[in-house]
Amino acid sequence: MHDRKRVLVTGGAGFLGSFLCERLIRDGHDVLCVDNYFTGSRETVQHLIDDPHFELIRHDITFPLYVEVDEIYNLACPASPVHYQYDPVQTVKTNVHGAINVLGLAKRTGARIFQASTSEVYGDPDMHPQPEFYRGSVNPIGPRACYDEGKRCAETLFFDYHRQYGVDIRVARIFNTYGPRMHPNDGRVVSNFIVQALRDEPITIFGDGTQTRSFCYVEDLIEGFIRLMGAPQGVTGPINLGNPAEFEVRELAEMVIALTGSRSHIVYKPLPTDDPTRRKPDISRAREELGWEPTIPLRDGLEKTIIYFDWKLSERRVSEPALRVEESVPAPRSPNIPKLPVNAALAGLNGTHVSVGSHSL
Length: 361
Ligand code: NAD
Ligand code: UDP
Hints:
alpha/beta
């Protein structure tokens, strides 16, 4: 018999959260999505709102929440450096007070609880690639610390609730993830470059572009979430989830220009303080304990993401409601953008609608 669970997703109206909510509903669960709309929006989950297995609540997790649930995914927290540095004190509160509140809820209800931690707990790493036992190199007083140290403290809380109260925890350290439904003004590198390229605006590389990142397509990541949550008792993590293929930021820029056929040129801007120089996950543990590894190469994921942004930036988004997948996607602006059938183009949007969200920051 199917085991229908009541699942709470905090930050469910954000980029990753919206994919997770969809996946959980598809897997036959009831989803309670909680979000304060700081970087997420109702529009991101608009296509789920009429689903009887989906419920949306505006709530800030820095305040306690009293609901009855079987599982909790704690994703609430802005992920883009631009956004988490916008109100750093709130970022710390979301990570620390928020973790205490959701862990308290897990303790009371006996729910299994998943934490969306981050590769940022490794800071600017002096071990490469980064395995889970590496303790990191984080500047505790820099502009990124509200996020890095906030997430590190959240991990501490998760493991203390586990040791002290027996709470069933799952901690994933997520590396850079991208895909459709990132907000055009999100500020992270993949969405920035694609939007700039589609608009033929300068591509802004921070520093000399030799810093590296490893980019995971969103659907691969969500599969990792589900496997970690479903792993046997005692698998607590932390487990790295990310794509180990490593790219320089300037390689990413060149790839985006080539795939979009853009006339954009590259401009170099100062490197932000404490910007990590290298980042690549060691995913041996995820392979061994979850049988998980990414399947979507960067080029393929970028193509899907470019098609989404090309549609998103086109005029039809302004006044029209959600695009259904059975409708046709507007022809790509550039001849270099592959003309995929709509279901393939919007793969990752799981057979429902595409949202037309607008965030306000
Ligand atoms: P996002 O900014 O799109 O989504 C975060 C969501 O959390 C938004 O909907 C936002 O409104 C909500 N939120 C923020 N503060 C809140 C609060 N106090 N109460 C309730 N809701 C709140 O980011 P994302 O990329 O979807 O990231 C989701 C989670 O995954 C975050 O915790 C992030 O730290 C983590 N993560 C993401 C990545 C990535 O590359 N996407 C990498 C590492 C970690
Ligand atoms: N970056 C860039 N141009 C941009 C945005 C980001 O060169 O317009 C760089 C940024 O300095 C970092 C990398 O791209 O080295 C990834 O940045 P992002 O904000 O996506 O995430 P991070 O991994 O730094 O948290």
